[in-house]
Design brief:
Shape: globular
Structural class: alpha/beta
Radius of gyration: 24 Å
Number of helices: 9
CATH class of the largest domain: Alpha Beta
CATH architecture of the largest domain: 3-Layer(bba) Sandwich
Mean pLDDT: 94
Distance between the termini: 73 Å
Low-confidence stretches: none
CATH topology of the largest domain: FAD/NAD(P)-binding domain
Strand content: 25-35%
């Protein structure tokens, strides 16, 4: 066999980030072009890809770490993927087209996919460096919270959004006394209106959670051993805290991309192809990507990005990502809530509202120019997917307005 008879080497694809966004993109790529690349994956955690959104039931004791693994180690081996776990990429050399990891090893690429996700926002509160103060983002954080719940009694969660309430519920399920500190007047104020928020708060209080609403944290106080012991508010009040969980939001993890000279504005700026606007050899998906000024933190748009990105990596680029209509749910057993679109409305919007406080059911639909533009549901979310479809389609609903509140099944009656 001569050199000319040897198969041409395949181009090399490097994925930085072993999470749900990057790995879904690889899944889609392997479906349509399984032999296109030699693939190398770097993951900063010592675990194979797992379902990050299912950390909530793990914390609550409803599932195990093993049950939320999406791609076990043998999956990578079966697909011929070189996997580097517990290895953080520290530098991208765009001139030489290599990535450099924290142990000094290098991986060359013809195409690079960045899926570094996001990092928790830690408010600049005095005392945040004390032992027992942590953010909640990964398996290590979850294990630290489970361990703390075995020996500690009082937990304070700073932030009453989705992540904060899931953390609070999980710690309460582990036997801790939990207080939720939130600046707004009701929990999940970005995902629910005041009426739905009040129903949610009442249900969580029945389950044992306490709420400090409209409260501004002034400092975290420590004991002589340097461990957190209390939270102090601006009005001078203090509440005990053996564990403090910061759930005040996330920020796109763009440090690696910025150091490489990629344009970043609230995320790595990408085209509709998910290619970086700076370097066409580099793609970005997930929470670290900024598409048309938006960085998405929910799984549905991230998966939509992955499907489009895969077509372009396969060089059959027929897909365009044009943005997503997103919806919100809460992963707390026994609580059903759902919101989508513009559920707050406005002066030129109409609202159709159903309230049944005794049954714990609330439903609000927001219309604008005869189109459904938003929905906020609590207690009965069975029609959430239908409402989201109507919002996405921008369909004129004048002909079905009489049935909107009662769901798709009412149209057939």
């Amino acid at each position: 066999m001569t050199r000319d008879d040897l198969p041409a080497p395949r181009p090399r694809l490097v994925l930085v980030g072993n999470g749900m966004a990057g790995m879904r993109t690889l899944e889609e790529l392997l479906k349509i072009a399984p032999e296109r690349y030699d693939i190398t994956v770097f993951g900063a955690e010592p675990h194979p890809n797992y379902n990050r959104i299912m950390l909530s039931p793990v914390l609550a004791g409803e599932q195990t770490i093993e049950q939320i693994v999406l791609h076990p180690l043998d999956w990578y081996a079966r697909h011929g993927i070189t996997l580097h776990l517990d290895r953080k990429v520290e530098r991208i050399d765009r001139v030489r087209r290599v990535v450099v990891a924290d142990d000094g090893s290098e991986a060359p690429y013809e195409r690079l996919l960045i899926a570094t996700g996001s990092t928790p926002f830690m408010p600049p509160i005095p005392g945040r460096a004390l032992d027992g103060v942590l953010a909640w983002r990964n398996i290590a954080d979850t294990q630290a919270m489970i361990e703390a719940a075995r020996t500690r009694h009082h937990a304070v969660v700073i932030g009453g959004g989705v992540l904060g309430l899931e953390a609070a519920n999980g710690l309460s399920q582990r036997g801790m006394s939990v207080s939720v500190v939130h600046l707004a007047a009701w929990p999940m104020d970005r995902q629910l209106d005041a009426a739905a928020g009040a129903l949610l708060q009442a249900e969580l209080e029945r389950r044992g959670l306490r709420f400090e609403l409209g409260a501004q944290t002034e400092a975290l106080l420590g004991d002589e051993q340097g461990r957190v012991r209390a939270v102090r508010f601006q009005d001078g009040r203090e509440i005990p805290a053996d564990l403090v969980v910061m759930a005040a939001g996330i920020r796109p993890n763009t440090a690696l991309a910025e150091a490489a000279g990629l344009r970043c504005e609230r995320g790595i700026v990408v085209h509709d192809t998910l290619q970086s606007v700076t370097d066409p050899r580099i793609y970005a998906v997930g929470e670290c990507a900024a598409h048309r000024g938006i960085a998405y933190g929910l799984v549905a748009p991230v998966f939509e990005q992955g499907r489009v990105c895969a077509t372009h990596l396969a060089e059959s680029g027929i897909g365009r990502y044009v943005g997503s209509q997103v919806s919100t749910q809460l992963k707390v057993s026994g609580i059903a809530l759902y919101s989508a679109g513009n559920f707050t409305g406005g002066d030129d919007h109409e609202e159709i509202v159903l309230k049944d406080p005794a049954a714990g059911v609330y439903r609000k639909l927001v219309l604008h120019r005869d189109k459904l533009v938003g929905a906020c549901l609590y207690g009965d979310t069975s029609e959430g997917a239908w409402y989201l479809q109507l919002i996405r389609e921008g369909r004129d609903v004048r002909g079905i307005r009489h049935a909107l509140m009662f769901g798709a099944a009412a149209l057939a009656s």
